[in-house]
Specification:
The chain is an alpha/beta fold. The chain is built from twelve helices and 16 strands. The structure holds S-adenosyl-L-homocysteine (SAH) and iron/sulfur cluster (SF4). The site of S-adenosyl-L-homocysteine has 15 residues, from strand 12 and strand 14.
């Protein structure tokens, strides 16, 4: 692969228009790549021969490849992608509900899917409970590497480009620590001439870099926000997420209050429940107080242990009690279904597991 070729997946439609002779050629290319999922320029039959030759010599359609897939009984598929430098990241496709068809064979509701995307190789934030953090930070993903995770999965599963789906930036890495490329990817994924995944269907999850929450808010893209809160006590939260020293709970809550939000929607707060650390009803009570005045939704997540992890998974009983306490007092709380629990559920675990197996996984493509 020639490294001086331009990766088209890195480019917005506007970028592409500025690089090719005619605007309609850029639109045709977008159609081939994002609607027909074609990766081979020589098969793009309605492009002129000269234009195709120019593309073959100077451009690439993406440069990440699927090296491993794990299938879970509930329909979740976990992908491991290899990047051009040999590094790997994970992406997860969450279950599509079956299409519903009425007695005349007409479509009532279309299958939906959610893709959980990575934004960095490793992560700088260093959360004590997170396997991704253990390997430290390697590098940011480029715009194209973020977009291509979605494109490659849609292509792999033959999901039509216009089928409604959601994107959550909850894979490996801290999205707001790679803000520029994240925003570039959000816009390309949202392009009406491409995959057309509206920003309203895209959720950015952050461990709480308050200043960057403000920056993202000022761009007014219409994306949703999910805050990885995990604790209501600054001392406990600093132990879990060291960055809490610089960006404490109060600073995050103020930034959330400033974030431009669609009034009909709720800000999601993720709360990783860890046995004996943050699972008491006193914590639940403080959580209600903390979120007063915010249209919030709590997503409770079971801590998922991995070899040598210092924490434990809470019992189902504790989870239910915590959720019931919040719900009975008017704070909407759900327990995240442990999707794909039979494959390596939490972030970073597939990559960890298959580190040694990569050589014989290349056949997955
Ligand atoms: N860096 C961002 C983006 C997602 S991190 C953030 O922290 O919000 C990936 C997700 O995996 C987060 O929701 C985090 O809470 C979750 N996670 C990390 N380690 C986990 C573990 N051991 N068990 C369960 N969930 C975990
Ligand atoms: Fe980074 Fe998120 Fe993992 Fe924390 S939980 S180390 S922010 S990826």
């Amino acid at each position: 692969m020639s490294l001086n070729k331009i990766n088209i997946i890195d480019l917005s439609l506007e970028d592409l228009i500025s690089k090719v002779p005619k605007k309609f050629q850029a639109e045709q290319l977008f159609d081939w790549i994002y609607h027909k999922y074609e990766t081979d320029f020589s098969k793009m039959s309605n492009l002129s021969k000269d234009f195709r030759d120019n593309l073959i010599n100077n451009y690439l359609v993406g440069n990440i490849k699927i090296v491993h897939r794990e299938f879970s009984d509930d329909g979740t598929i976990k992908y491991l992608f290899q990047l051009h430098d040999g590094r790997t990241v994970e992406t997860v496709l969450l279950r599509m509900k079956d299409d519903q068809i009425d007695e005349n064979g007409d479509m009532l509701s279309q299958a939906k899917y959610t893709i959980c995307v990575s934004t960095q190789v490793g992560c700088k934030v260093g959360c004590a409970f997170c396997l991704t953090a253990k390997g430290g930070f390697i590098r940011d993903l480029s715009v194209g590497e973020i977009v291509e995770q979605v494109l490659a999965i849609k292509r792999d599963r033959e999901i039509e480009y216009n089928r409604k789906g959601n994107i959550v930036y909850m894979g490996m890495g801290e999205p707001l620590d790679n803000l520029k490329n994240l925003v570039g990817a959000i816009k390309i994924l949202a392009d009406e001439k491409g995959l057309a995944i509206s920003p309203r269907r895209q959720t950015v999850s952050t461990s709480g870099i308050s200043t960057k929450i403000d920056k993202l808010g000022l761009m007014d893209l219409g994306v949703h926000l999910a805050i990885s809160l995990h604790s209501v006590d600054n001392d406990v939260r600093t132990k879990l997420i060291p960055m809490n020293k610089a960006f404490n709970i109060e600073s995050i809550i103020s930034a959330v209050k400033r974030f431009p939000y669609d009034n009909r929607k709720r800000v999601m707060f993720e709360y990783l429940v860890i046995k004996g650390v943050n699972d008491s009803l006193a914590s639940a009570k403080q959580l209600i107080k903390l979120l007063e005045g915010i249209k919030a939704k709590i997503n409770l997540i079971y801590f998922n242990p991995y070899p040598d992890s210092e924490f434990e998974r809470p019992s189902e009983e504790i989870m239910m009690k915590f959720a019931d306490y919040l719900n009975s007092r008017g704070l909407l709380a759900t327990i995240r279904a442990s999707r794909g629990i039979d494959i390596s559920a939490a972030c970073g675990q597939l990559r960890e597991k298959s580190g040694l197996e990569l050589e014989n996984l290349n056949s997955c493509n």
